[in-house]
Amino acid sequence: MILGKGSILFHEGDRNSNLYVVRKGVLQGRNTRGDSTTYEAGDLIGELSLLKNEPCPETVIATEDSELLEITPENLNETLEQEPVWFKSIIQFMTGRLSIAQSNKHKSDKIKALPSILYILDSKATQATNSGIALDEILQAVYNLFNISCDCIKDVLHLLEELEILKEQGDKVFFKNRNVVHLLYETIRYRARYQKMPPQILSMTEQMVLNAVIRTVQQSNEPLKNGMFTVMTPDLLKVSRRAMHGATLTTRTLLPLLQRKLLNASVTLGDKTSLPEIETIPFFFGDFDNILDLMELNRIYPLLDKKFV
After folding, report:
1. Which residues pair with 27 in a beta bridge?
2. Among 41, 59, 197, 254, which one has the highest count of C-beta atoms within 10 angstroms of its own C-beta?
3. Burial classification of residue 133, based on how many CB atoms lie within 10 Å of its CB (0-12 exposed, 13-18 middle, 19 or more buried)
4. What is the dihedral sign for C-alpha 64, 79, 53, 156?
5. Are residues 4 and 39 in contact, defined by beta-carbon separation less than 8 angstroms?
6. What is the DSSP string of 51-72?
């Protein structure tokens, strides 16, 4: 068959069960996600529709006058008899590889979209009010900057909603915690830049200690002062026996958190070789919201690989 320049072979979603082999010319395929494929002499078009009876995955247009061999389901066997015996196996193999490639590309696009979306959200967080951010504004900004399809962006936004970072309502996106969006963006950026674990990611021991701190604060009658908490050491030790699952809370256990200023001691500590016993430190203090945000980040971060891979 002959297809003139600008002619459409089929539209995305069509039920076209024919297979086409490009003999001459060039055709361009494009789907609603923004993905594109170029077909030249020798390429197959429509193998998924023919062999798997799936809707056409893209709209295909001739970008120059083209000649194609059209193979219908009715004349498939006749055509295959005229071709080498391995021709059908090659088509089936290529179809399987194409399905895998399409799936992998979508996963890859989502992984690339995540930091882009977090960057846009983080940059707009200071401007956002309780009215939220328009979904179209996010879609357009990410597409303009990184040429990522709207469907892919929406998929990532849905995953962020599943992780309880965002909430979508109608045509608006709302932050559940703006600070966590910022922390998550900075964490991913650090990991990509330095190829190592970001400093915001806590060890299991550090998470257990901070969990004990949080429980102690929540059980205390002492009010927060400008977001700052104070926990008495005897109270913290008592809670830690239950919250740390058998691990012992000591000054050395607390040291990494003290060095990072996530916790502060009421007395000046010496170097590692002369740390005081924890019982001799009257109390510890710190920024409660900062610790809550960091713990939320550490809840979300391990889930990213499961959601995006």
Report:
1. 39, 62
2. 254
3. buried
4. negative
5. no
6. HH-PPPSSEEEESS-EEEEEE-
Residues in the chain: 309
Contact 209, 255 (CB under 8 A): no
Place of tokens 């929406």: 154
Confirm if 187 and 301 have CB atoms less than 8 A apart. yes
The alpha-helical segments, DSSP class H, found in the chain are: 47-52, 76-82, 87-125, 135-146, 150-162, 178-194, 204-219, 233-243, 251-259, 288-308
Nearest partner of 120 among 142, 148, 150, 152, judged by Cα = 142
pLDDT tens by residue, the chain, 309 residues? 899 999 999 999 888 878 888 889 999 999 887 778 889 887 888 876 666 677 888 899 999 999 998 877 777 656 556 655 545 555 555 555 556 556 667 777 788 888 888 988 888 877 666 778 999 989 888 887 777 788 888 999 999 999 999 999 989 999 988 899 999 999 998 988 888 889 899 999 999 999 999 999 999 988 899 999 999 999 999 999 988 887 899 999 999 999 999 999 999 887 777 899 999 999 999 999 999 999 999 999 989 877 776
Please give the Cα distance from 54 to 16 (Å, whole number). 9
Question: Could you give the CA distance from residue 177 to residue 73 in angstroms, rounded to a whole number?
Answer: 55
Distance, in Å, from the CA atom of 201 to the CA atom of 260, rounded to the nearest integer, reads: 12
Q: Which amino acid is residue 193, in one-letter code?
A: R
Q: Are 301 and 188 in contact (CB under 8 A)?
A: no
Strands laid side by side in the 283-287 sheet: 228-232, 283-287, 264-265
User: In this structure, what are the phi and psi dihedrals at residue 133, rounded to the nearest 5 degrees?
Assistant: -115, 135
Rounded to two decimals, the pTM is 0.66
Which residue's structure tokens are 């071709």?
83
* Gap between the Cα atoms of 75 and 45, Å rounded: 16
What gap in Å lies between CA 80 and CA 69, rounded to an integer? 13
